[in-house]
Write a structure and sequence with these properties.
Shape: globular
Distance between the termini: 35 Å
Structural class: mainly alpha
CATH superfamily of the largest domain: Iron/manganese superoxide dismutase, C-terminal domain
Number of helices: 9
Strand content: 5-15%
Strand order of the largest sheet: 2-1-3
CATH topology of the largest domain: minor pseudopilin epsh fold
Number of strands: 3
Helix content: 40-55%
Oligomer: single chain
Bound molecules: manganese (II) ion
CATH architecture of the largest domain: 3-Layer(bab) Sandwich
Number of domains: 2
C-alpha cells in the first residue's frame, strides 16, 4: 500500500494560456509527486496509517503520533491540496450556474464582491499558501487562507474552491505578479465541479 497521484484529468498544456504547460508539468510531476513520495517515506513504518485515505490523515493530523505529525501536515497536506486543486480546474473553465451565483450572492452580496474578497485573501498570503472557498459545519460559505500546505479540512471546513499561491504555481509565467496569475486563474475554474462539491457538503 502506498499513496499515489491520480492522473491529471487533462494535458499539461490544456489550461493555456492562463496556466502554462511547463508550470503544470513541473507542478504535477515534481512538486505534487514530491509530496506523495515524501509522505510514503514518512509513513513507511506505519501500515495502519498508510491504509487510510490521505484526507482522513490530514483532517486529524494533530492526533497522529508525533513522529509523523509534521510529515502528514506538510506532505499529506500537499498531496491532498494538489489533488483537490487539479479537480476544480478544467480547460477553458466552466461558468457558474444561476444556482451557484445565488448561493454566493446570499453570502457576499454580489459575485464580484466574492471574487474581490477571495482575491484579497489570495494576495495577502505572506510567502506560500492557499486561498479557499469553504463550507462551514453550519453550511455557510467562508473565504479563508492557509499557510504552506495546511488544509481547511483540519479545521472542519469543507473546501469547494482552492487556489495555490505558492510561487511554484505561477512564477515561470507571472514572476512576482501574483495578482495577474489570480486574474487568469478564474478563466479555468470548473464551477460545475464547485457546485457538485457545494451540493454534496450541504446535502442539496
Ligand atoms: Mn503547488
Amino acid at each position: 500500500m502506498a499513496f499515489t497521484q491520480a492522473p491529471l484529468p487533462y494535458a499539461f498544456d490544456a489550461l493555456e494560456p492562463y496556466i502554462d504547460a511547463r508550470t503544470m508539468e513541473i507542478h504535477y510531476t515534481a512538486h505534487h509527486a514530491g509530496y506523495v513520495a515524501k509522505l510514503n517515506a514518512a509513513l513507511e513504518a506505519y501500515p495502519e496509517l498508510m491504509a487510510q485515505p490521505v484526507e482522513a490523515l490530514v483532517r486529524s493530523y494533530p492526533d497522529l503520533p508525533e513522529a509523523v505529525r509534521i510529515a502528514v501536515r506538510n506532505q499529506g497536506g500537499g498531496h491532498y491540496n494538489h489533488t483537490f486543486f487539479w479537480s476544480i480546474m478544467t480547460p477553458g473553465g466552466k461558468a457558474e450556474s444561476p444556482f451557484m451565483v445565488q448561493c454566493i450572492e446570499q453570502r457576499f452580496q454580489t459575485f464580484k464582491d466574492f471574487q474581490k474578497e477571495f482575491e484579497a485573501k489570495a494576495v495577502s498570503v505572506f510567502g506560500s499558501g492557499w486561498a479557499w472557498l469553504c463550507i462551514t459545519p453550519h453550511h455557510t460559505l467562508e473565504v479563508v487562507a492557509t499557510s504552506n500546505q495546511d488544509s481547511p479540512i483540519t479545521n472542519d471546513l469543507t473546501p469547494i474552491l482552492g487556489l495555490d499561491v505558492w510561487e511554484h504555481a505561477y512564477y515561470l509565467k507571472y514572476q512576482s505578479k501574483r495578482p495577474s496569475y489570480i486574474d487568469a486563474w478564474w478563466h479555468v475554474v470548473d464551477w460545475a465541479k464547485v457546485e457538485e462539491l457545494y451540493r454534496a457538503a450541504c446535502n442539496t
